[in-house]
Write a structure and sequence with these properties.
The structure is a single chain. By secondary structure, this protein is an alpha+beta fold. It is built from eleven helices and 18 strands. It has an eight-stranded mixed β-sheet. A five-stranded mixed barrel has the order 1-2-3-5-4. A three-stranded antiparallel β-sheet has the order 7-9-8, with no helix packed on it. The chain is elongated, with a radius of gyration of 26 Å.
Length: 434
């Protein structure tokens, strides 16, 4: 068989092919030229291998870092910094030559650049093993979210991102022209989740982009992010949702710890332990704790970022948990579809993890008249929500749901200080490229 006909092998499987002729393809990670031999380190999606070239191998003298190559040769046992084998090259083919001056050096143990430089040259930076590890882990978070919910009888749905009205109401929506009619980018799949529950499917979930037109420049917000959403019928109360999320998180962490040990070790990350029961306290109680324990007196109906951080410190100290559910948010802080609880509160919750809110959820109103009343109370016109409201006129079951921000959860799990690190191509107030 000719070299050109040899099937490509991936680097992580080469230790089983000692003595065989192989073909690999990848990027030139490092080059070390000596008088009588050249060492190049090749990187593909599975790892790195050291390749040894004699001076008579054509093409090696023009190689640059990050050039794309196809290399043929034999695998020999040789313990080195990159593994237990190396490749003795007999043929090298340059597939594409990289520019000599790179804006990011991706062959160092850490990327020594600012986040703005990293995002400006995103594709190049994503070649770094640690950057790839972030998104391999993130992909599996979505996979395990789906896996767990399918096991629990949920059906995956795909809802429109072009909508007539934003699910939350208010002004934080992106407006666009839809063939002469005003439309918006969806803030949430909330209305459609509820409609599908009411349709008789009972349990649904979605992983999809949502859009928030909020002018901010923080390390925890994006204007487009991926939301992990679920909605379920016939719940007794919001605590049923909180128990479900606890089991969901346990499922995720258990699988990540096994399937991504290599990536977690590379990133030096220790995943959190999920307690049998995540502590839950009323928001009003949390605000009182912050007053008493931290002399924080300015909060009214919600926690600011410092408040979330402090209440997490308190819960960690008191209950040894990195998670806490905050419940019974006031009506003024929750959308019109949230089920009221008494005169001022709602049957709702947030999940705060390591000092940052990652989940919002709760019971929904399932009575048509009550929903219309809440719309009026929020200053919304029910006529603008006709198609949504129609579903509630023909028998809607008690239901509720929650949403988790994928990028924010990933960042907190991996100890990354800026959520933009966990978005492949982040969209914030200043960035529309790449």
């Amino acid at each position: 068989m000719k070299n050109s006909e040899v099937k490509r092998q991936l680097i992580n499987g080469l230790e089983a092919l000692i003595g065989e002729n192989v073909c690999i393809c990848g990027w030139v990670h490092r080059i070390r030229r000596l008088k009588n031999v050249t060492f190049i380190i090749i990187r593909d999606r599975t790892g790195l291998i050291q390749c040894v070239l004699s001076p008579d191998i054509e093409g090696h003298d023009e190689l640059t870092h990050e050039s794309v190559v196809k290399v043929m040769g034999s695998i020999v046992q040789s313990k080195n910094a990159y593994g237990e084998v190396e490749l003795l090259v007999n043929q090298l083919r340059l597939l594409n030559l990289a520019e000599l001056e790179l804006p990011i050096q991706v062959n160092k143990s850490d990327l020594e650049v600012s986040i703005e430089t990293l995002l400006e040259h995103r594709v190049l930076g994503l070649r770094h093993p640690k950057e790839q590890a972030i998104f391999r882990i993130q992909a599996s978070i979505g996979e395990y979210f789906s896996e767990f919910l399918r096991r629990e009888g949920f059906t995956e749905i795909h809802t429109p991102k072009l909508v007539k009205e934003g699910a939350e109401g208010g002004a934080n929506v992106f407006k666009l022209d839809y063939f002469g009619e005003t439309a918006y980018l969806a803030q949430s799949p909330q209305f459609y989740k509820q409609m599908m529950v009411i349709s008789g499917m009972e349990r649904v979930f979605e992983i999809g982009s949502v859009f928030r037109a909020e002018a901010h420049s923080t390390s925890r917000h994006l204007n487009e992010y991926v939301s992990l959403d679920l909605e379920m019928a016939f719940i007794e109360d919001e605590y049923e949702l909180m128990r479900l999320e606890t089991e969901l998180l346990r499922h995720m962490m258990g699988h990540l710890s096994v399937q991504h040990k290599k990536e977690l070790d590379l990133l030096e990350v220790e995943l959190p332990k999920i307690p049998d029961t995540i502590p839950n306290i009323k928001l009003s109680e949390a605000i009182e704790i912050l007053k008493q324990e931290y002399d924080k007196n300015e909060l009214d109906g919600d926690l600011d970022p410092e408040g979330e951080k402090r209440i997490s410190e308190y819960i960690k100290r008191k209950f040894d948990s990195e998670f806490v559910f905050l419940t019974h948010y006031p009506k003024t802080k929750r959308p019109m579809y949230t089920m009221p609880c008494g005169e001022t509160e709602t049957h709702s919750f947030d999940l705060v993890f390591r000092g940052v809110e990652i989940t919002t959820g709760g019971r929904r109103i399932h009575d048509y008249k009550q929903l219309v009343e809440r719309m009026h109370a929020k200053g919304l016109n029910p006529e603008a929500y006709t198609s949504y409201l129609e579903a509630f006129r023909y028998g809607a079951p008690p239901h509720g749901g929650l949403a988790i921000g994928l990028e924010r959860l990933t960042a907190l799990l991996l100890g990354l200080s800026n959520v933009r690190r966990t978005s492949l191509f982040p969209r914030d107030g200043k960035r529309l490229t790449p």
